[in-house]
Design a protein that fits this description.
This protein has about 325 residues and is α/β, with parallel strands linked by helices. It has helices at about 10-25, 65-70, 85-90, 95-115, 150-170, 190-200, 220-230, 250-260, 285-290, 300-310, 315-320, 325-335; strands at about 1-5, 30-35, 55, 75-80, 120-125, 170-175, 180, 205, 215-220, 240, 245-250, 265-270. It has one domain: Rossmann fold. Bound molecules: nicotinamide-adenine-dinucleotide and 2'deoxy-thymidine-5'-diphospho-alpha-D-glucose. Nicotinamide-adenine-dinucleotide binds near residues 83 and 85.
């Protein structure tokens, strides 16, 4: 397969690029990424000389740039990871979220039609379903009810994909996954932020009462789920992907402290996120029964290898936590 991966310099995209190149010796990837604050070519170190891999710095919202990348020809698929992904940032400035996550998706769908790309995969999120009460899990038919600008912009992207299938016969599938963790995750997100703070004996800022529930999946399992949907999914279908490990945030933070042998006195409860969704839990039985996918990592083993990865890559943490990150951290947590 020859795949245009967008957003391949980010956390999940870079793991997916590595996963495909390792799993399919004949596959080729062109990685189109704008390199925002979250895009980092260090995430792809070692691949630069691979003949089956090429990088293009472009914006998915720029039709001319997307056309230029696709004009190399013969693409079998586009897999769209490119997005603004952090809920807290979307609460401060939503416009770029709409531009990339909603309008950028439309640019890619239009390009699929112009270039007759046989398959499109939209990497989406369980956040489009909104928040659950104390019982139940998200299934693919759960109504979309996003509660923050990030999830609203992703839900709009999903609706545009659905419309491209229905109106123009674009062969597209959507995956909706829960919270990922693993190597190369930008340390603005819960798990890498807590690990990085622990390593500096800094306070661990837990929002609200820490009892908000998320489902956690190791990034490699998300990649294999996307891969299953890409190669075997039915056009127009949505596939939920989850790790079957839904627990309160406080439990995750305490696990990290235990693995790193740090005291719970580092925990600091801070002002809650506005509109903070209380509980996510995801039912992945459709992709399991229809496409034969299942996660292959336990939370405990994956968390330990994730911590080991951050311990072994302190330079990476230092680079990502320099520059703009300092301003961001002060703005987000300074007076919280
Ligand atoms: P990330 O923030 O680590 O990376 C996003 C990447 O997209 C970066 O490399 C960035 O440079 C690139 N990008 C941003 N705007 C772009 C644009 N206009 N044009 C081209 N490239 C652009 O994100 P991530 O956590 O790896 O998430 C990847 C995808 O997976 C997103 O679509 C996200 O909504 C989805 N997702 C993430 C999670 C999670 O837990 N992180 C869970 C479910 C779904
Ligand atoms: O559910 C999938 C989504 O998971 C993805 O679509 C998003 O791109 C991804 O960012 C993630 O969204 P969350 O908002 O759930 O992730 P985040 O890591 O920001 O927060 C996880 C939980 O931890 C959430 O309940 C908020 C809380 N939190 C987060 C941070 C950064 C804290 O308590 N303290 C923090 O400092």
């Amino acid at each position: 397969m020859k795949i245009l991966v967008t957003g391949g310099a980010g956390f999940i995209g870079s793991n997916f690029v590595r996963y495909v190149l390792k799993t399919y010796p004949d596959d080729q990837i062109v990685n189109l990424d704008k390199l925002t604050y979250a895009g980092n070519l260090e995430n792809l170190a070692g691949l630069e000389d691979q003949k089956r891999y090429a990088f293009v710095r472009s914006d998915i919202g720029a039709e001319v740039e997307v056309d230029a990348a696709l004009s190399a020809g013969d693409f079998d698929a586009i897999v769209n990871f490119a997005a603004e992904t952090h809920v807290d940032r979307s609460l401060q400035d939503a416009q770029v979220f709409v531009q990339t996550n909603s309008m950028g998706t439309q640019v890619l769908l239009d390009a699929c039609r112009r270039h007759k790309i046989p398959r499109y995969l939209q990497v989406s999120t369980d956040e489009v379903y909104g928040s659950l009460g104390p019982e139940g899990k998200f299934v693919e038919t759960t109504p979309l009810a996003p509660n923050n600008p990030y999830s609203a912009s992703k839900a709009a992207g999903d609706c545009l994909v659905r419309a491209a299938v229905g109106s123009h016969g674009v062969d597209a599938v959507i995956t909706r996954c829960s919270n990922n963790f693993g190597p190369y995750q930008f340390p603005e997100k819960l798990i890498p932020l807590m690990i990085a703070n622990c390593l500096e004996d800094k306070e661990l800022p837990v929002y609200g009462d820490g009892m908000h529930v998320r489902d956690w999946i190791y990034v490699e399992d998300h990649c294999s789920g996307i891969d299953a949907a890409l190669r075997k999914g039915v056009a127009g279908e949505v596939y939920n992907i989850g790790g079957n490990y839904d627990v309160p945030n406080l439990e995750i933070v305490k696990t990290i402290l235990r693995v790193l042998d740090k005291p719970e006195s580092l925990i600091r409860f801070v002002k809650d996120r506005p509109g903070h969704d209380r509980r996510y839990a995801i039912d992945s039985s459709k992709i399991e029964s229809q496409l034969g996918w299942k996660p292959s990592h336990t939370f405990e083993d994956a968390m330990r290898s994730t911590v080991d990865w951050y311990l072994g890559n302190r330079d990476w943490i230092e680079h990502t936590r320099s520059g703009e990150y300092q301003t961001y951290y002060e703005r987000m947590y300074g007076n919280r």
